[in-house]
Specification:
This protein is 42% helix and 22% strand. By secondary structure, the protein is an alpha/beta fold. Residues 11, 14, 37, 41, 72, 74, 76, 81-83, 101-103, 105-106 line the site of guanosine-5'-monophosphate.
Length: 190
């Protein structure tokens, strides 16, 4: 029997460790492919176009919205982010899982279009720990860190809309938890 691909959505307040966890999953699970979003934000040190994101201009992003190229898109921290349609369609067709890293607004839209999507929320033990991680990551200026923390408090209100909550205290355990959730999907009764 051909494997059926699943849509897996991972959301978390910025700095909770979602990228770190997703990277670990992708490295070891060849059946799960990361959905590369488009964004108008500038690349961080080390980020490459077509790997973490497709980096694009606001003009092009707005053109893509007009041409119905996104499954969902949202404005997060003054930048646009969107999930391209072509990628998701291609992966699902191939029978592999697709892993979407989107904010809570995007996740709610995905839930609406794909009610069977597996929704995972990555939580950080405390807001203090979140602040420490954002500072340690060293990628955002203090005013941006402030914005991300304020936004985290709003995002936490959506937690009950998710199917699974993983508190990312110990990174290794969190990766194992997400892996187990993904593994269990192949046994799901559709
Ligand atoms: P997100 O993608 O959710 O914004 P990142 O994956 O970039 O977050 O992680 C933010 C920072 O926190 C990074 O420096 C990462 O190495 C660190 N980090 C991730 N998970 C943990 C953890 N369980 N404990 C401590 N630090 C962590
Ligand atoms: P960052 O700039 O830290 O990479 O991401 C900021 C936020 O944008 C994160 O919450 C991340 O999940 C979200 N994000 C990334 N790609 C998308 C997307 O395609 N759609 C939506 N709605 N959010 C996204």
């Amino acid at each position: 029997m051909k494997n059926k691909g699943h849509i897996i959505v991972v959301s978390a307040p910025s700095g909770a460790g979602k990228t770190t966890i997703c990277n670990e999953i992708i490295k070891t699970d060849k059946n799960t492919i990361y959905s590369i979003s488009y964004t108008t934000r500038k690349p961080r040190d080390g980020e490459k176009n077509g790997v973490e994101y497709f980096f694009t201009s606001s003009d092009n992003f707005l053109k893509m919205i007009k041409n119905d190229k996104f499954i969902e898109w949202a404005k997060v921290y003054d930048n646009y982010y969107g999930t391209p349609k072509f990628f998701l369609q291609r992966i699902i067709k191939s029978g592999k899982n697709i892993l979407l890293d989107v904010d809570v607004q995007g996740a709610m839209k995905i839930r609406k279009y794909f009610p069977k999507a597996c929704m995972i929320f990555i939580k950080v033990p405390t807001i203090k720990a979140l602040k420490e991680r954002l500072i340690k990551r060293g990628q955002d200026k203090p005013d941006i860190i402030k914005k991300r923390i304020a936004n985290a408090k709003t995002e936490l209100k959506y937690i009950n809309k998710y199917d699974y909550i993983v508190v990312n205290d110990n990174l290794r355990q969190s990766v194992e938890a997400v892996k187990s959730i993904i593994k269990s999907l192949q046994y799901k009764v559709e």
